[in-house]
Amino acid sequence: MLSIKDLHASVEDKQILKGLNLEIKPGEVHAIMGPNGSGKSTTGHVLSGREGYNVDSGSIVFNGKDLLEMDTEERAREGLFLAFQYPVEIPGVSNMEFMKAAVDAVREHRGEEPLDSVSFMKKARERCKAVNLPIDFLKRGVNEGFSGGEKKRNEIMQMMLLEPKLCILDETDSGLDIDALQVVADGVNALRDSGRSFIVVTHYQRLLNYIEPDYVHVLSDGRIIKSGDKSLALELEEKGYGWLVTADEEGVA
Amino acid sequence: MAEFVKQAAQLTALGPLTWLSEFCSEAQQQWLGATLPNRKVENWKYTNIRALEQGDYLNLATKAGDAAVSTESDCQKTVAICDIAGLDSVRMVFVNGELCERLSEGFDRLPAGVQLVNFAKTNSAQQDLIKRHLGSALDTTKHPFTALNASQLVDGVFLHVGKNTVCETPIQIVHLQATTDQAITIQQRLLVVLEPNSQATVVEHFPDSANVKAFTNGVTELLLAENAQLNHYRLNLEGDQTFHLGGVHARLAAGANLNSFYLALGSVLKRNDVVVYHAGSGAHCDINGLYLPRGNEQVDYHTCIEHAVPHCTSDESFRGIIADSAKAIFNGRIHIHRQAQKTLAQMSNKNLLTSNKAEIDTKPELEIYADDVQCAHGATIAQLDDTAMHYLRTRGVSAAEASVILSFGFINELVNDVKHEAIARYLRPFLAKSFVKDETLTRHIL
Asked: CA end-to-end span of chain A, whole Å?
């Protein structure tokens, strides 16, 4: 599904990722944890093709294709989805218009007929209910005046509509109360299947109680310094990151 | 411009409205004595009206009113242009400055207490009302073109809504141009008088009818008595050869409420001077507006909100998208007089420039003489937001479509606030088409 090899990336000449390696197979859920500033969000931005995030070396192959050769929208059409840590407010553009444009673009790319507006509305309403957002949120401006939790649920709704192959959740749990966390986790779990993979970026082990990962990776200073199964997350919760980072530095020395 | 003043004064012989002759001849004297604005005058610093002098506009249309839409197919075409689906309005249609009776319709739907009539058809009671009010809301010395308008009046529209009368049916006044052999000048005039506790909706509609070289010099006066409520639209959709100078002068008595919406697609020049005078406590106005010039077009909005008495409020928001080598001017003045304590006044002007050669001259202007007021203003000039662009693209939307969606969203915020949904629905396609031709890029916003 996704193969990241020795990835080095920088923002405004500051090196953030320093040799990131990650292999993700279809159906797997990978959690990426790590201290602030370790490069977690940068990984998401680089994968999405955000301007200003420069790849200096290394490679990313997504479903057999060179991801770095693709524009942002092409990546999305190929099935990559990034749920934003801070979803953007776009007043004047309704959620529904936005999602119709997105779904049409993705379907066209897959060689499918565009959905007529009735079928689309039906689908959108279902997804809206699934994430516990009132139906009138479809008519409202994209994220306009939404609370933190509503924005995150809106991201999950978009993910459900676009049915991507690889979903990257960038701190989707931050700012959520327990009920909203449950809704988001239910949304993600409903999408889990053998053909779809997830990268869950988070600070807290709590989310991983709801979304059980197959692998947990610790990112520090732009590299993965430890990988394990879900028990690693529990260990981190208990001990923090300090011991790992120190051990890694000693190992390097 | 002195030559222009003289020639313009001779365009129409005084006289078609004999009962107004005193008013007209006084205006003619003012016009002949007027110094026309030039770029050394602050209010016209960024607005170039030389095209007016050079444009040879000083001719009257040879065919106007009913004579200009004589065939059945002309009629059908014209009706289609005027129609705002779902508005269910009473409609008065002017062609080249004259009333076209066969296209004007719906008068029987006006409730008792509402008089809607063109100046030429007024009875003597109506003429008395007009004489009492016409020109009372405006300062001719500050706005010299209003003197030209008054001196050359051949017709106008008078709307009078009696005390406690609510007119639910919107009144749509359409100004069309029909093809003529030469450039023409049209004087447009509207006088609205709302008596205490009355309500009405007026849509001044200038569609893109024929690509005619025309100079429209318009004056609209809105007089709102105590607690009257008016929804007012002025929609300038005329084609790119149009030269439009418009003035809207409103006067609000105590508790009156004016809700206005302005729109201008670009042309050689469209300038509207909007003056709202709060004359009675508790008066309120909302003024929103949009402008979308492109190519070499020029649009100019000069607004002036006068707060002369205490406890009044005003809320103003104008937005523009300026493309190609086009130019827009926004000057928003708020004047709070010494006795106008407890005034709440807000103004915002946001602009999107979509090309390196596009120009916006925006100037919020506050003049405050009272010490217990709240007055906020802001102006921004920007390009499309990178973060929002990226967000749309991460969902698979192409960069080209994302830029259209975001530009449209920027103006659609104000369109969404329009009181009459039928008008919002009517306007959206014009707005979308005004900055993108490719329909595949607008299919998701319309």
From this structure: 34
Task: Answer yes or no: do A88 and B387 touch at CB < 8 A.
Answer: yes
Rounded Cα distance, A131 and A126, in Å: 9
Rounded Cα distance between A244 and A225, Å, is 8
Residue B153 DSSP label: -
Distances in whole angstroms, Cα of residue B129 to Cα of each of B250, B267, B441, B445: 17, 36, 52, 46
User: Could you tell me which residues are beta bridge partners of residue B306?
Assistant: B277, B335
pLDDT in tens, A9-65: 999 989 999 999 999 999 999 999 988 889 999 999 999 999 999 999 999 999 999
Cβ within 8 Å, pair B386-A92: no
Q: What is the pLDDT of residues A163-194, one digit of tens each?
A: 999 999 999 888 888 888 898 899 899 999 99
What the block records as the tokens of B247 is 């003035």
Pairing of strands A141-142, A90-94: antiparallel
Residue-wise over B116-153: b if at least 16 C-beta within 10 A, else e?
bbbbeebeeebbebbeebbbebbebeebbbbbbbbbbb
Q: Which residues of B touch A99 (CB under 8 A)?
A: 395
Alpha carbon of residue B379 to chain centroid: 21
Contact B399 A71 (CB under 8 A): yes
Q: How many helices and strands, by DSSP H and E, does chain B display?
A: 9, 19
| Domain spans in chain B, listed from the N-terminal domain onward | 2-280, 386-446
